[in-house]
Design a protein that fits this description.
Elements lengths: L4 E3 L6 E3 L10 E4 L5 E4 L7 E4 L2 E2 L8 H4 L5 E5 L6 E2 L5 H6 L4 E6 L2 E7 L5 E8 L6 E10 L5 E11 L11 H5 L3 E4 L3 E4 L3 E2 L6 E2 L3 E8 L7 E5 H5 L9 H5 L9 E3 L3 E6 L3 E3 L4 E11 L15 H16 L5 E3 L3 H20 L16 H14 L1 H11 L12 E2 L6 E2 L14 H14 L8 E3 L5 E2 L4 E2 L19 E3 H12 L28 E2 H23 L4 E5 L10 H4 L2 H14 L8 E5 H23 E2 L5 E2 L2 E2 L18 H8 L5 H14 L1 E2 L4 E2 L28 E2 H13 L3 H16 L1 H4 L6 E4 L5 E4 L4 H13 L2 E4 L2 E4 L13 E8 L2 E8 L11 E5 L6 E3 L4 E3 L10 E7 L1
Parallel strand pairs: 45-49
Antiparallel strand pairs: 1-2, 2-9, 3-4, 4-5, 5-6, 7-8, 7-13, 9-10, 10-11, 11-12, 12-23, 13-21, 13-22, 14-15, 14-20, 15-18, 16-17, 18-23, 19-21, 24-44, 25-26, 27-30, 28-29, 31-36, 32-33, 34-35, 37-38, 39-40, 40-41, 42-43, 43-48, 44-45, 46-49, 47-48
């Protein structure tokens, strides 16, 4: 593999030499207060609170290398051109002799650079305090020459200070709203108005750049406007003011109506050979404040900053609850970053990094649930209320809100009334809730009641309620009271309505799209075989839950009366798409504009049997209708808007990975069919040079009867890229069905591609996808990370909850063990740290070994069933790590 990113410790810290030799690199920083940063090796990138509050100019991926307006720090020496610590200087770029070295750890970014004459060594450590809206830069300058060096240090950060919308929409006009103040420590900007042609508002938010030296001394002079800083004929990489030695203004200066610059210089400093000094620059924002006063006075000197950095590192380290030890140290380090990516999704949502230049913040529905998969493995108790609040976004017709609020449990009406329904949305809540139940055995959670979301979209988005008042966002009963149903009722409605929403082939209607958002042009006759499999799997899960409730003594559950017709679908009705639609339409009409509020009681044992029978019938139907026998046997995954099967009837065989994943995961595919699928996937979809399994074959046409994906270049994004999320789910599905070797291949090739820096050109972690040249794109904010962690923990290492107890069922291949035949995983379970070591001294392959013995702490009971062990969980107040040794043989 490439020696690009080299791990320097067991916590995922890494170094990368010559980082300025690659374009498109960026690193995420954030705080719990909402500040979000993207920073490149040249300190380009942006900094923001939300869509309307950007401190630095918004940056898409091309802007990282094409724009000049990044964070910069300059050294001024007599007889030399200004020298940039970041290398963002036309003079240094013309020489091309300097290299940037990146040193990074989770939520801490560092660069270092040596001047071409060898006289100056400089480094910049950047972080965001966990409790603030400030990005802090610690710049260290060292005299690495053999003579005393006298210089002036200048910090230069352009202040954008407004909405991302204003990049093209009234960029100059909004600069006329700017009011600029110079205080003792820096430059502060307070626009007069928040510009919005629908209604301008008085602005209170301030943006600032302030700094001090190692003695806590403030700057000596300031350049508060870009125009005045760069000078005529200059730019931010060639500031004429610095070249000509022109000093700026003093504290107390005010101006207005221009692009602001957070630039300031310090009094001259002399360093003897080997001596160094430190400068601090803070880029921040506040909802309100006095722009004429300093905003950073809690920091008196660099030691205050160091203390805050230490506290910030400790906080984020506490979020890294999973670590592994295998025979591959790179894989162990890679997993540190993958396991942190769900935290980044929590902080960033699906926007605000250079590739993620769409949306206005927040998450989508499936993101709410899938990100919880990894979070549940860390601390299920803390995720419990998050799950509960997520249920508040479900409509009583089985669909859900698509606009997610900023606070847990907050959902917003789509004011445009766009009737968009993703048919896969009902799958994810049950999958995630089932994991919570396995981890905790908290079946009472299902009995908790909460409201349903309500807006003007009814009958699963097919109709609009013209009488909706536009304000009521909770479902009411006939008496005008807010109706609340159990979480189990929510799950039943969500899945049972989806299973009735079928097309002409008796397959679930595709509607706006399924998991693949780009299959968005088949709303009339499109059908998703892939997610019909998934809902069959959910039926089995619901049946299992009903059985567990019955065994726990819960013989009946209370449900909304209108649900009755959904609970027992006869075989005759099951075979008739029109009858299914009639039942769904009658139900949808019965719950709008209000529900009765009346209840019925369902027998849990009978319901378990009914759901099981229905799942079995549907599985038989799918195997009979959708299995495709040709040169590469597989399942058809979709029907297009002309009612034609997407993967059959072509001149050459076509295949979608999604169409196979859920057939395997749900249990629909038989073992023989899985063997055929894996061979077909290897032949039609596998591309090792691009990271593994592509999402689909090349259909060689722009299918306007299927979706926009077919307009993308093949091998990019949803059209045939190695899409990490589905590739990981393919691995997960194979592991579940005990095809461990095949499942590991899917995981390993993604890891190998990610860590091959010369190909992927990304920092450690897993991207959304690998493009046609194998480059990693849309890094960090991907649901693939949650699924990767979930799969490594629950399938590869086999650590699962089973009705609250700890189940251990390893599927570790012999190549994973270290030279001593050992592999270890550390993670929390039931709020206690656990360390589980697997010993395979004979280096047996999966399928050859069984669990020979289990060592557990005194007082813990366990059962050894050969292929799996069950450690009986014991309540204890002790904080010590629970150590378990599993000997394989």
């Amino acid at each position: 593999m490439s020696k690009g990113c080299i791990f320097t410790d067991k916590d995922g810290s890494f170094t990368l030499n010559n980082a300025n030799g690659k374009t498109g690199l960026y690193f995420p920083l954030a705080s719990e207060k909402g500040l979000k940063s993207a920073i490149s090796p040249t300190l380009n990138g942006d900094l923001k609170i939300d869509q309307n509050s950007f401190l630095l100019e918004p940056a898409s991926i091309e802007d990282l290398s094409e724009r000049r307006g990044g964070r910069n720090f300059w050294i001024l020496r007599a007889g030399h051109t200004p020298w940039s610590v970041t290398g963002a200087s036309v003079w240094q770029m013309a020489e091309g002799k300097e290299e940037t070295v990146v040193n990074a750890k989770i939520m801490r970014h560092g660069i270092s650079r040596l001047s071409s004459d060898g006289d100056i060594s400089a480094s910049v450590e950047t972080f965001i305090p966990v409790d603030s809206t400030e990005e802090i830069h610690m710049v260290t300058i060292e005299n690495t020459g053999d003579k005393p060096m006298t210089f002036e240090f200048v910090s230069a950060v352009p202040i954008y200070g407004r909405s991302a919308d204003n990049i093209r929409d009234h960029r100059h006009v909004t600069s006329l709203l700017t009011q600029i103040y110079v205080n003792q420590r820096g430059v502060c900007v307070k626009p007069t108005l928040s510009f919005d042609e629908r209604g301008h508002k008085l602005n209170e938010r301030i943006y600032y750049v302030e700094g001090f030296d190692e003695f806590g001394e403030a700057p000596a002079y300031f350049y508060p406007e870009i125009a005045g800083f760069v000078g005529e004929g200059g730019n931010l990489e060639m500031p004429m003011t610095l070249l000509k030695g022109e000093t700026g203004v003093k504290p107390g200066f005010k101006t207005a109506g221009g692009e602001a610059m957070g630039a300031f210089g310090f009094k001259a400093c002399t360093l003897e050979p080997g001596e160094s000094t430190v400068y601090i620059t803070i880029v921040g924002t506040a909802e309100s404040g006095d722009p004429e006063k300093e905003n950073t006075l809690r920091y008196k000197n660099p030691s205050d900053v160091e203390k805050t950095l230490s506290e910030t590192e400790s906080y984020w380290a506490s979020k890294q609850n999973i670590s592994i030890h295998t025979g591959d140290e790179n894989f162990d380090g890679f997993m540190k970053w993958v396991s942190f990516q769900p935290e980044l999704r929590r902080l960033f949502g699906c926007s605000f990094l250079p590739h993620h230049d769409y949306g206005r913040g927040g998450k989508g529905w499936r993101d709410l649930w899938q990100d919880c998969l990894a979070l549940l493995l860390y601390d299920p108790d803390s995720v419990k209320e998050l799950l509960f609040n997520n249920f508040k976004g479900m409509r009583v017709d089985g669909t859900n809100a698509t606009i997610i609020g900023d606070r847990p449990g907050e959902f917003k009406a789509d004011r445009n009334g766009i009737p968009r329904v993703w048919m896969d949305h009902g799958v994810w809540p049950l999958m995630t809730t089932a994991l919570y139940l396995d981890e905790t055995d908290d079946l009472e959670f299902l009995m908790r009641e909460t409201e349903y979301y309500r807006d003007g979209l009814v009958n699963r988005g097919r109709k609009q309620d013209r009488d909706w008042d536009g304000e009521t966002l909770k479902l009411l009963d006939k008496e005008g009271r807010v109706y609340e149903g159990s979480l189990l009722e929510h799950l039943l409605i969500e899945n049972l309505t989806a299973l009735l929403d079928v097309g002409e082939h008796n397959i679930l209607a595709l509607r706006g799209a399924d998991w693949n958002d780009a299959m968005d042009m088949a709303p009339d006759r499109g059908e998703s075989v892939a997610f019909t499999h998934a809902y069959v799997g959910n039926l089995k899960t619901l049946a299992s839950i009903m059985k567990r409730l019955y065994q726990k003594g819960i013989r009946e559950i209370s449900l909304l009366k209108e649900i009755g017709p959904l609970l027992d679908i006869s075989p005759e009705t099951e075979a008739d798409p029109s009858k299914k639609r009639e039942i769904l339409d009658r139900f949808a009409d019965s719950v709008m504009p209000a529900v009765s509020g009346d209840r019925i009681f369902a027998d849990t044992k009978k319901l378990s049997e009914t759901l099981t029978d229905r799942a079995d019938r549907m599985a038989d139907f799918l195997r009979e209708q959708e299995w495709t026998e040709d040169s590469h046997p597989r399942f058809n995954g979709y029907y297009d808007n002309n009612g034609r099967p997407l993967e059959r009837g072509k001149n050459k065989p076509h295949m979608t990975l999604t169409g196979q994943v859920f057939a395997i995961m749900s249990g629909v595919a038989t073992e023989d069919e899985i063997k055929d699928i894996t061979l077909s996937a290897d032949a039609l979809l596998f591309d090792e040079a691009c990271g593994g399994y592509r999402l689909n074959t090349n259909f060689d046409e722009i299918k306007t009867d299927m979706g926009r994906m077919f307009g993308f270049a093949y091998g990019e994004k949803e059209n045939g890229a190695v899409f990490s999320h589905m590739a990981v789910m393919y691995g997960n599905a194979l592991f579940r069905r005990r095809f461990a070797k095949e499942g590991y291949k899917a995981l390993y090739t993604l890891y190998k591609q990610s860590m091959d820096f010369e190909k992927s050109v990304i920092y450690p972690g897993i991207p959304e996808y690998f493009g046609k040249n194998g480059r990693g794109l849309y890094h960090y904010l991907t649901g693939a990370a949650s699924w990767y962690v979930y799969t490594v923990v629950t399938e590869l290492f086999g650590i699962k909850g089973e009705e609250g107890d700890l189940a251990i069922e390893p599927k570790l291949l012999k190549s994973i063990f270290d030279k001593n035949g050992k592999a270890t995983i550390k993670l929390p379970f039931r709020n206690r740290p656990h360390e589980i070591e697997f010993v395979n001294e004979s280096r047996l392959e999966y399928g050859e070994y069984r669990i020979r013995s289990v060592e557990v702490p005194e007082g813990f009971a366990f059962e050894n069933r050969g292929d799996r062990a069950i450690v009986k969980y014991k309540e204890s107040m002790a904080e010590e790590t629970v150590k378990v040794t599993v000997v394989l043989g």
